[in-house]
Amino acid sequence: xxxxxxxxxxxxxxxxxxxxxxxxxDGKIAYLTLNRVKYHNSQNAQMLYALDxxxxxxxxxxxxxxxxxxxxxxxxxxxxxxxxxxxDFERGREDRRSMNYNHDxxxxxxxxxxxxxxxxxxxxxxxxxxxKPTIAQVHKGCIAGGLMLAWVCDLIVASDDAFFQDPVxxxxxxxxxxxxxxxxxxxxxxxxxxxxxxxxxxxxVLAAGMINKVVPxxxxxxxxxxxxxKIATQPRLAMALxxxxxxxxxDLQGKRxxxxxxxxxxxxxxxxxxxxxGDYIAGFDxxxxxxxxxxxxx
Length: 298
Ligand code: ZN
What we know:
Layout: E1 21-26, E2 29-34, H1 45-60, E3 66-71, H2 110-128, E4 134-138, E5 141-143, H3 145-151, E6 155-159, E7 163-165, H4 181-184, H5 187-196, E8 200-201, H6 202-207, E9 213-215, H7 220-231, H8 236-252, H9 255-277, H10 286-294
Parallel strand pairs: 2-3, 3-4, 4-6, 5-7, 6-9
Antiparallel strand pairs: 1-2, 7-8
The structure holds zinc ion.
């Protein structure tokens, strides 16, 4: 066998949901709704490609002025899929969105490095760069990879029962792949958020500057809609330029280049896990992570 490739792994992948992201329009607002309810919107590639399609559709529709990212089910998102029947880590894609090759038949650390570059890092950057205002509507759990989806939006509105957590240091990682923590929080709080790995309440992340607004759960839909409708009255180009201006300043402050560097650290950690623990995510799965995370209340 060549050391350049490994045989494709024949795995049974059972998608429990044909439409993992729903797309609805209300006036000038497009609603993108995460819909892997059974697994708390844990992110497999099926869902992330569907979400990319939905962002692309809303971006290209001249009648849409604002995009809302929200979720069906108990939680906004439990993070990346590390253990459902629909976990499609081993599946390559013909409809890749970045200038990259498929990961599924690659050996060693290359496999996860290539895959995560597309579905986590570059996807998040594409969605951050959508030229229309985006609002994340967060309820209950927004964990690890869930943070990435909320963070790429321009505004975050949460219900009072929401909580936020990046518990992946226990898995050996310096945070999730989209390393925006020191931009979403100040550096000292980012260190606390990561090193303790605790759940932070909506009120706490509001006070820390990570989100824009907290409302009672039964007012969440209306609060987001009210903001989206107000924003939708603004001129399209001015909003696109405003986003580009803010995002560009963040990148001048080091967001993009810092994230590139930490992506390398993150994959050194994946490789180290494989060497030391025999598994690139240190033997954790959805169940063991959920149990461990629940114990981490601040
Ligand atoms: Zn990773």
